[in-house]
Amino acid sequence: MTIVNRIGEAAKKQNMNIKTFSDKTGLAYNTAHDLYTGRVSRIGLEVLDKVCRVLKMQPGDLLVWVDDAPVATHNL
């Protein structure tokens, strides 16, 4: 299973570059950069709240679970 980070994609759709995203969320540039480019392995709830408020989106719109496991096949 994989969690896909769509924060950068959502910010781009709202014409936000990393600097603007950082300024609007109040996050440090390096943190905003990592979120924007998907280079994070965990996101604190406080940070996620800031991102959701700025992008006006739900967490489920920004973080999507993708089932990448192969489908089991059974020989009958």
CATH superfamily: lambda repressor-like DNA-binding domains
| Count of DSSP strands | 2
* CATH class placement: Mainly Alpha
Strand content: 5-15%
| Poorly predicted segments | none
Task: Record the strand order, biggest sheet.
Answer: 1-2
How many separate helices?
Answer: 5
The gross shape turns out to be elongated
Tell me the helix content: 40-55%
Structural class, from secondary structure content?
Answer: mainly alpha
- The helix-strand sequence is EHHHHHE
CATH 2nd-level architecture? Orthogonal Bundle
| Number of domain units | 1
Tell me the radius of gyration: 15 Å
What's the CATH topology label?
434 Repressor (Amino-terminal Domain)
Write the topology of this structure.
Blueprint: E1 2-5, H1 7-13, H2 18-25, H3 29-37, H4 45-55, H5 59-62, E2 63-66
Antiparallel strand pairs: 1-2
Helix pairs in contact: 2-3
List keywords for this structure.
single chain; 76 residues; mainly alpha; 434 Repressor (Amino-terminal Domain); two-stranded antiparallel sheet; 51% helix
Brief summary of the model shown:
This protein is mostly helical. It is built from five helices and two strands; from the N terminus they run E-H-H-H-H-H-E.
Account of the 3D structure:
This protein is mostly helical. It has a single domain (2-66), classed as lambda repressor-like DNA-binding domains (434 Repressor (Amino-terminal Domain)). Helix content is 51%, strand content 11%. The chain has 5 helices and 2 strands; from the N terminus they run E-H-H-H-H-H-E. It has helices spanning 7-13, 18-25, 29-37, 45-55, 59-62; strands at residues 2-5, 63-66. Helix 2 packs across helix 3. The two termini are 27 Å apart.
